[in-house]
């Protein structure tokens, strides 16, 4: 998993699942605005609002291998100010889990 909201990629099923589940609980709602598929990639446009009132838009790119299994996820949030706050808040949410310390922006 690579994302604009994380400092370095999250590797491994447990870390990725923890981040995705924590993020899903943190959202008040997510509206998918479009979907485009090409080759081994799916592009999903979306708008979200978090439980703390942040409003963001972005795109998720899902890449599958030749067997059709999910191989890579790239998530791009905007605007930057909200994304940085979001990163700090999610970092706090997943602290003490399978997610390595330093994965999220810590404000420093």
Write the layout of secondary structure elements.
Layout: E1 2-3, H1 13-26, E2 27-38, E3 41-50, E4 55-64, E5 70-78, H2 80-93
Parallel strand pairs: 1-5
Antiparallel strand pairs: 2-3, 3-4, 4-5
Describe what you observe in this structure.
This protein has 2 helices and 5 strands; from the N terminus they run βαββββα. Helix content is 26%, strand content 40%. It is globular and about 40 Å long. It has helices at 13-26, 80-93, and strands at 2-3, 27-38, 41-50, 55-64, 70-78. Strand 3 (41-50) and strand 4 (55-64) form a beta hairpin. It has a 5-stranded mixed sheet with strand order 1-5-4-3-2. The relative contact order is 0.25. The longest helix has 14 residues, at 13-26. The model has no long low-confidence stretch (mean pLDDT 94). It has 108 residues and is an alpha+beta fold.
Structural key phrases:
globular, 108 residues, single chain
In brief, what are we looking at here?
By secondary structure, the chain is an alpha+beta fold.
